[in-house]
Each structure stands twice: as structure tokens, then as C-alpha cells.
Amino acid sequence: MPESEKSDDDEVPDKSNIQIYLRIRPVSEPSECIQIVDDENHVRFDVPRKLNQGLVNNQKEAHHFTFNSLFSASSTQEEVFDGVARDLVLQSLDGINGTIFAYGQTGSGKTFTITGGPQRYADRGIIPRAIALMFHSIAERTDTEYKVHVSYLEIFNEAGYDLLDQEREVRLLEDLQRIHILEDEDAVIHTRNLSMRRADTEEDALNLLFLGDTNRTISETPMNMASSRSHCVFTLYLEGRKTGEEVVRRSKLNLVDLAGSERVAKTQINGTILKEAKYINLSLHYLEQVIIALQRSMGQARLHIPYRNSMMTTVLRDSLGGNCRTVMIANINGASAQLEESISTCRFAQRVAMICNSVTTNVELDPDTIIRNLRQENENLKYQIRHDLKSIATA
Ligand SMILES: Nc1ncnc2c1ncn2[C@@H]1O[C@H](COP(=O)(O)OP(=O)(O)OP(=O)(O)O)[C@@H](O)[C@H]1O
Fold first, then answer.
1. Is residue 345 part of a domain?
2. In this predicted model, what pLDDT tens digit does every residue of 160-205 receive, in sequence order?
3. Which one has a higher pLDDT value, 265 or 291?
4. Which of 23, 25, 273 to probe ligand 1 with, by most ligand atoms within 8 A of CB?
5. For the domain that residue 245 is a member of, what is the CATH number?
6. Is the Cβ atom of 117 under 6 angstroms away from ligand 1?
7. How many domains does the chain fold into?
8. What's the domain range around 190?
9. Best mutation site among 112, 256, 273 for ligand 1, i.e. most ligand atoms within 8 A of its Cβ?
């Protein structure tokens, strides 16, 4: 069928696997055991095999992992944005949902990748760059009117909080209103108490990002001076209507900084930080269970996917096996002491890459147009009735 004759009802969902990218964080003494085989998008870990504890012989165990693309320790923020996020941002303007999530052990560079570093302008991460590209593209598309809204959700110790809540500065965390996640009979997820703030300009959206970032729960841990102790989901909601068209295209772009997994025995943490790490590890375990269940259900009758086990997997339900183009960035630390965790992150990414999402363009009749049409129909009927009554009276 020619493109011009296609109606939106005919659209066949596009099957699209989750794309996986590897990023290696620069460290002062990079491990020689990690080798990037560039042209094959491949990373190899040659790990010395231990005979006994502390005794190392010459034998090495090799672990190979393939990614859609890899970013070495010298890759810039711009290269990461262009390689990972640019297409998703542009597609969101056409009504396609997107999610980018960063996964990896604590201190591996997830927040640096998603939000950026505070030191230099060039260190801006994916969120500020996505905002800039989005508003730049909106300004170029003069035939379409867009509305942008922003929300910023924090999941801390399995409870949801609104990072854009004005009360955050004056109240204790336990006194703040919690976010509730509700699921309707069509398995559509709704959030209660999460504010959606209108952003008309790039500056508006950046201010909201800044407000949310200052509200994030951060602690100093042995692995990271400023460790995010929560999962954070920054969402840009887009609504676009082309001049003269009666349909609107809606999309959501989720930019997700997951809290980092932590080997609690290795880092010897205790007290509050230990409690937080346990919650973080548990929710990452639930994420892994969802990925394993999705992987098992591929090509089979629908299996139960345990999304509801944690708030994070409930919120990311559409991104994992649903109507969304999803990208995962596996962040690893380039040091020898972290090889085990880095391999484990790569292994998890290989599983994620097998998950297939069904992506459709979200097009619906514009509610304003529906109301306008109904009003017009009402007027026509009234006129018809008046006309008929007159005809009866004069007959
Ligand atoms: N590519 C990079 N270039 C320069 N510095 C980086 C890079 N990646 C990370 N860093 C620095 O390393 C430190 C740890 O990074 P970051 O806080 O992003 O880790 P994280 O994975 O988010 O950790 P956590 O899970 O504990 O929050 C920060 O000081 C950050 O600025």
C-alpha cells in the first residue's frame, strides 16, 4: 500500500530489540585486562585465573561481550549523546516513546552519563543535551505546535517522591507526599502526586532539571563521594499537532539514572548506607528477574512478568517489553579491582539485548478537535430541529 493511503489504524508495531551500549569510566590506573575490539563492537576481559586466594598464575579466562556500540574512557559526552540518544530524541517529536537507562555498579559513571558533570560545559550529560536538541528541533518544525511537560521521579528505599515538589526544601523526606503508582484494567500505568510541569523553552526545562537535581538523595560512600542512593526518572512528555491536522502525536522520553549496585561485603559499609544499598540491590534484582522472565517468554505463550515486584520495574513496564524504543547504557569502571562487577554488568546487558519491544507511533484525535466537532454537530442538530419545527408549524 502506498504510504499516502496508510491510516494510523493500519500501523503494524515495529519490533525493536533493546539496544545496548558500553561506556568505560576513565580511572587513574586502567586495567590492562579490558580490551575494546572496535570494529566488531566487542569488549574482551582477560581475567587472571586464581589458583588459590592471592596466588595468580599465567592462565587467563576470557570473557567476550558484543554491544551495539562501545565508548572508551576517552569518549566525550557529545560522542555518547550522538551515538546513543540523538535518534530517540528526534523520534520522540514524531510520537514515538523512548527510554534511555544507565545501569552499572556504584561509581561507574551513570550520573555523569545521564545528567553530566558540574565542572565544564562540555561535561553536560544526556538530559541537558536532549532538552537542547528537542527545543531546537521544535523551533525548526514551524508546521507543528508542540507542548512539552516535565516530571522528575525519585525512587528511594522503594518509595516514590516528586523531585519537583516545592516542599522538598522545607520538609523532611518522611513528611513528603509519596507517589502512588496505579495500574488500570488495560495495564496502563498512572502516577498519583507526581507533578507534570509545563516547559515552554529550553531554559524552563533546564531549570526543572536543576531543581530536581538539587533535591536528589545523595550520600558519600567508600566507592563514590556523591553516590545517588535512588533511581531517578526524568521524563519529557511531548504533544505535537501539525497545522491543519486533526490528530495529535504524543510521546514520552524517559531518561533514567538507576542507583548503582554495590558489593556490601567488599565495601564494608554499614548503618544507613548499608540499608540503602540493600534496597538498591533488591530492586536491581527485581529488574533482573523481569529481564529473565521477558527473555524466557520470547516466542512463547505469555508468561507472567513480575513487573509489580518493585516500583522501578512498574514504572519502566512500557520500556521493558512494551511500546517504547529502549536503550541501555552499561557503565563500567575501568579499574582492575572492579573487573568482577564490570563483567557482571556486561552479562546483564547481553540479556537485556534479547528483549524485544513493539513500537508504534502514538497518534490520536486531538481532544480539542473532538470537542469542536461535537459542538458543531450540536449546533447543526439544533438548527435542524428549529427548521423542522418551523416547517411543521407552517404546514
Ligand atoms: N566519563 C567520565 N569522565 C570523567 N569523569 C567521570 C566519567 N564518568 C564518571 N566520572 C566521575 O566519576 C565519579 C563517579 O561517577 P558517577 O557519580 O556518575 O557514578 P554513578 O555510577 O552514578 O555512581 P552511583 O551509583 O554511586 O550514584 C564522579 O566524580 C564523576 O564525575
1. no
2. 999 998 887 777 777 788 999 888 887 788 899 999 999 999 999 9
3. 291
4. 25
5. 3.40.850.10
6. yes
7. 1
8. 78-322
9. 112
